[in-house]
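Re: the request from the purification team.
They wanted to know what the chain is likely to look like in 3D before they choose a buffer screen. I agreed to run a prediction and write the result into the notebook, where they can find it.
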Amino acid sequence: MKRIVAILSIVACLLCANSCAVVPGRLSDLLDEPIHTTEPTSTSTTSETVIPDDGQFDDCFYYGLLTDEQKENYRAIDAAVKEANEQDLDITAYLPEEEQNGTVYGARVRFPNRVTSEDEVEMLYRVYTYDHPACFYVGGSCYRGFEILGKTWYNEMYIRYYLLQAQRDEAEQELQNAIESLTADLQGGEYSPFDMERLLHDRLAEWCVYDEDAAAVIDRQRLDVSEIDDTVDPCCHTAYGTLCKKLAVCDGYSAAMTLLLDRVGIRSAPAYNDDHAWNLVWIDGEPYHLDVTWDDTENVVRHSYFNLTDDEIYATREKGEITAMPS
């Protein structure tokens, strides 16, 4: 059985003094209960323009778990990411001095609702990346806040990109070509959702190889956070690495499966606990768990983790805080 690995092991960053922090590994690390917190973490809107809700995120699983104010901040992240995708936006000046030894590109987010919790800022970043696996070029975030009467408010986030615009454009085309290659014959309406899901599960397992070397390095880092090793290609955690480089760890498989299912019209979402990633999939309106990583063995594609119920999947792993099925 393959070793379970954590999500993105990409460069984290600290910002000025005590008003900034590092993004931790998993959303479930941040929450003792669902995303709605026990006391307000946001206040009235700032002068930033509120991005209207036009329904484009209605099918995004994690977006649907947020409060109305958190959704506005999520939409602000999306707007900033889209704006930054049209250019190479220099965000170096917003980073701490020790990080300014080279130009850093990415997105600058201004929250329409100020946030009072570091955990909530970090959660918003994770939620957005979980819902948007096509943003494979995102490589971590940091944020800035200010104090009013002893209370810290967080109003900006900076999202790093590890690819330049020209590289992103080329990689995005590669990714779309790979998705089309794996789904083209399934888009004519000849297959049921279940049959399409099973075919894509099998194809992805045959297409990609589990990155044992990256998993070993990541596991060592998790045991000793001082043991930093930058030899792991961040692509192994992404849909791009899975579909274009054909080498990935669990969150790469999950992100790729999300994009493949979306292409053929099947709703899904990445699912996480503290040390593994898989998928939630809705077939004929019913939710199931799908774990391509654990079904991808060296010599044969299994179906041991194909469309399991809650009870079945959680007999094999700890339940993540954020993977509860919606009612």
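For the purification team: The longest strand covers residues 138-148.
Please add any questions underneath this entry.
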